[in-house]
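User: My advisor, Dr. K., asked me to get a structural model of this assembly before our group meeting. I'm new to this, so sorry if the format is off. These are the inputs:
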Amino acid sequence: MTQGYIVLIIGYIFGFYMAWNIGANDVANAMASSVGAKAITIRQAIFLAAILNILGAVFVGSHVTDTIRKGIVSTEIMTDPHIALIGALSALLAAALWVSFATWKSLPVSTTHSIVGAMIGFGIMAGGFNVINWGNLLAVVLSWIISPFFSIVIAFVVFKIIVRLILSRKNSFEQALRLSPFFIGITLFVVVLSFLFKTPLGEKLALGPQAALAYAVLVSALLGFGATVLIKLSVTDITSGAEEIFKKIQVGTACYVALAQGANDVANAIGPLAVIYFLVKTGNVGAKVPVPIFLLLFGGIGIACGIAMAGHRVMETMGEKITTLSNTRGFSVEFAAATTVLVASKMGLPVSTTHAAVGGVLGVGLARGIEAVNFGIVYKIMVYWILTVPAAALTSMVIFKMLHLIF
Amino acid sequence: MRIPFFSMFMTSPFEGLQEHAEKVKECAWAFQQAIECHLADKCRTFEEFRQEVIQLEREADTIKRRIRGHLPKGTLMPVYNFLLFRYLREQDQVIDSVEDALDWISFRSEPGIPAELEKEFVILTDAVIDPIEELSKMVVEARKYFKNYSEEQRVVIKNIIRNLRQQEHEADKAEDMVKQKVLNMNIDPVTVFHMVRLAEIIGSIADHAENAGDMMRAMVAR
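Assistant: The format is fine. Below is the predicted structure of the whole assembly, which you can bring to the meeting.
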């Protein structure tokens, strides 16, 4: 099956290209708040983002990949390996084309939406409209509406809590120090849980949901207090108030976002690639095949390369633009975005990191935390986002037709 | 627009507000110099100072229009945008009134302010200078408050607003003194009208500063 191997190589190239694009474009959303609030430097941001995207992709990521691969397009069409192969390749090409087009035209197109649209296009071409699992697709589309909203609510509530319990108090510095184990603990709780819950690691440790929950509580409580001790030791300037403490906490939340991003976005790059891989290796795609770790690692490294090569330029412009975001705001934004993305990826929903981050900023804006936020931009984003899915689907259909004629 | 996250952040209108307040503050000095010069016997530089104020007013106007022009619908801010506009309007009227006062003097520069009224006008001028200078301080403190939302910071702003009210009251008294005196003087009626109107215009500077303070009070309301 030499033809299959050619397709596999092309698949690897374009899968890597997609991952590279995610790293180059979307990482800014993840690290913007921390760099803008001067919690970390650009160099540190790139380093952290690269490492944690790989970690997130490998250890937390596999669940979303399943949904993109099998959830939307039913496995019926996968029975013909030839069509499935061409289909997966055209989906990957179409998505890559759309992301390139968006980058060229400076449009805010999400890689998540491109890949889902392209998969739909391939499904329609291969088996008509009835192979699309409309129920699952609806769930995915709903998650795109709910995720920014969820993020808005979390950011709003977190920021209001910070204002009420810390900022408006007389000794905001001490209050922030006293409550920091709580904030760090909650963050760590979600992270630890995401590592243990429904992942290969969790299965290896043979933890049930309750055990995972208990472990997460224990670990996060311990680490939370440990981190607070570290903060207490490292913060010397008491006059700077609560922001100084959140500056330290933000280093952690920056990692949190990068981790969540890796976990969620790796699927966009290697979803179709995984289909191609299985078809070439086994000749067919079964109902249940796990995504091999090395594919996740491949995607993670692709993202990391994108971050390392193009992240610097993006983040430089960012540092100049986001000056009004102080540390408490940045924390609220990042916490909301990362929690949304991580929860969604655990539920197998491929949401967009960008939308979660945008939602986080709007939430803080609604809580009157930022001097000026343009809410109107949301409508613009929504238009592009609605357009991306059918556009990618159409592109994918055209490419499918062309490849079908060639092979 | 490629990265939507960035396009959400826009230039803060408070930056413009602060810039505008600085212009207003700058004109206070020129205004005081102009009045003192006009009261002196041989004044040559009044026109220079007036031109300076006109120039500052024009610059402040540009800033005002820039702020208004760059707040699209759906901008989220720590305050309602209509409050911000009302505040800006009052702050702008402070500098407008300063310019009006100097213009009014220039319309009839001879014979100038009668010697008997000099002392009263000096008091009135000094009384309106303080509130003008207080404005820029208030904007700076307000921005701090919108950052840290601390109760202590709110008290700082409230104290400034209280000062403004107090100063406006002082300016009112000074204005009344001028009017009372000039209306009971046996002089040319045109001069009487010129002086009464001048006192009113100068007095309105403090009024607008106080109004700006009231708007600020609404902005920092919890």
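One thing worth pointing out at the meeting: Residues 11-219 of chain B form a domain with the Methane Monooxygenase Hydroxylase; Chain G, domain 1 fold (CATH 1.20.58.220).

User: Perfect, thanks a lot.
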